[in-house]
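**Discrete fold encoding**
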Amino acid sequence: MGQAARIRPCVYLLEDLHWADESTLALLTYLASRVAQLPAVIIGTYRSGYSDTNPALVRTLEELIRIGVRPQKLSGLSKSAVAQMLHGLTEHKPPASLVSLIFEESQGYPFFVEEVYRHLIEEGKVFDEAGQFRKDIQIEEIDIPDNVRLIISRRLERLDENERRALAAAAVIGRSFSFQLLTEVSQTDGEELFTAIEKVQRMGIIDPSSEGPETPFTFAHELVRQTLLAGISVPRKQQLHAAVAAAIESRYPSFFNERAGEIADHLLKAGSFAESRKVVRYLFLAGKSALEAAAFEEARRSFRSALSCQGVVELKEKADLLASLAMAERGLDQWDAVLANLREALEIYTNLGDREMVVGSFARLTAALVSARRFQEAIETGHRGLAYLQEDVSALRVRLLAPLAEALAAVGAYAPAQEALREALKIASQLSDSKLEARLLGARSTVNFHYFRLKEAAADGLRSEQQGASETSPWRRDAQLRVLLQTLMYLGRMEEALRIADELEPLARKIGQSYEVALCEGVRAWAEFAKAPDLAKFEIGLKKMPKSDQTAWAAYWEALSEVLLSLLDFLRGDWTSALLHAQAASRHPVLASSRYGVGTLFRQMAYAGDRDAALAILEEERTRLPQSGQLNSRGWSLMLALVIEGLVMLGERSRAEELYPLVRELVDTGAVVLWPISRFTQTVAGIAAAAARQWDTAEEHFQSAMQQAESLPHLLEQAEIRRFHAMMLIDRAAPDDREKAQTLLGEALETYTQIGMPRHIEMTQTLLGQTTGG
């Protein structure tokens, strides 16, 4: 060895030292005391659980430690390292689901990682027919690669028959288990079981668990547990699963709801050893528990399994399961399935003549149709429910009127919506039911927000929160918080809005409402930009906002994103890109009714100087502009602001002047900030008043806008107010107006320069030239 090392450095690897005889270990000790002087490295590996059966190994380790050689304990690869390993094996970036699955199975041990992966490949479970990674990869209990099974089985040969039987019972219980539960299931004497547990713990087969006193032990590797399960006959395994379910029931009578999923899983695996009615009962409880935890996929599996028990499920029970399954499908954004299940449940309840459940089903179906943005169907369903109720005055009527009012408002029937809410609130008051009243206040807040009655919407939304809105369904609460957040944003109450965002976002993440998550991210990005305008950070903030994968909201969010990107490019001076995004927003069908996508395009064309095209758009939209003295929706209010600004930039002051009365009505709503176009209503009012040559009124509007922008604060809007105010002063041309305009433009120019807005800098410099006669 010495001669070889002098020719070139050497590395020697001695594996499985726990199987080595005494002479081999003695040679290792001898070499270890001399290798330090040679260009050589000796690496030995052994399993820590085998020292009790090899005293020579123990003596060798003690001697190596005495001479300064200390063993290094190797753990499995981290999840990120497993991902890298799989990337190398697949030559593609593996999905997180596959990484997590193999990491859990292998605990990061490289041999197991590779063997499990290759086994899944051979079974055709990794890639679909198109060669893409599957999204539904699962590993069955006995789905173990042969090579892995052989290695683990060799380790298990050190156990006697009783020890293997006890460990097999533990494997049936699950990855983690308690000594008490194992005693009951395995029917093994306590002292004998203690000895077995101590032995397999020394072997490294099980470890102390960190899950708590009820599950003090856990299998070190899931593949060991699966190998044990593979060695049990099917009837014996089923019998053990039934015993585990019964033992959990008897040991935890006060917590069977919390452990329903565990019991249901064992009963399903117990096959003919389980009572069918009990299986259905626990599957239903398990699904309910999963719903409460927002584990929607798990809930769906439980409800579907219960429904599949043909001949066991009674009709009312089937309807209850279908209604619950609809809730799980809603969490997974499967709206066609949601509506189909709710309709089937309604039909069953109707045939059974269960009045309360029939009306409840009408209410749930109406609300689901509103959430799916199928408003006309929602109205028809709501009216059918009311016809079924006839003249009945009860809480059932209230629960039906609330979603019906929201559907009516969504199609423009504001008066009928308010009438429905007045009737419902009267009933709720007579019943002294604060929870019902909270639900109705939330619905009225939504209706008023839709028609930009912001003060009323905020008041109702906050009262709803105070009166128990937190006790409503998570989806209802999510929708109400979303409306309240947007309302507070428009009212310029940023601190309150951010508090609502902090409350809404974790709820939205829990129930999978990506649109609301994106909205919260957008509000924070906008608030940060308002205080410290940085276009690069603002862009990063917009890109951080997750795309909505909700069927009902995805198209809307896509269109809204185009508006935001157009605004971003407009501010940073890339007006060509801003125009492209504005065109995409204007063409998007989801913004057709609100028209502010068209408004964004009109304003961008006006700034770019495309006069003919801009005015052609306005001519098409003339009959669709908001009408004075009428209720106008939120989208129309945004379009109004965009059109007025665009007209002034085109020099069409007389046409902007005509719209000033509408702006006054907009200001009266209490709106301060028009999000997402980022313009203050008082700024727009000042622009329109100046176009009408109402100089003093315009001054008042600009002063009010500046006070709001300083209070919020919004630094960019302050610069914009100064620019528009200066334009008014130049037009008015009163004594000292030019000097005042120069001051305002100088301050605006400084802000534009700091932010990096080249096109705004050019516009401001042009205006400065007008103040000096240049």
User: Anything to note?
Assistant: The mean pLDDT is 87. The longest strand covers residues 10-14. The CA atoms of residues 606 and 650 lie 6 Å apart. The first helix runs from residue 2 to 7.
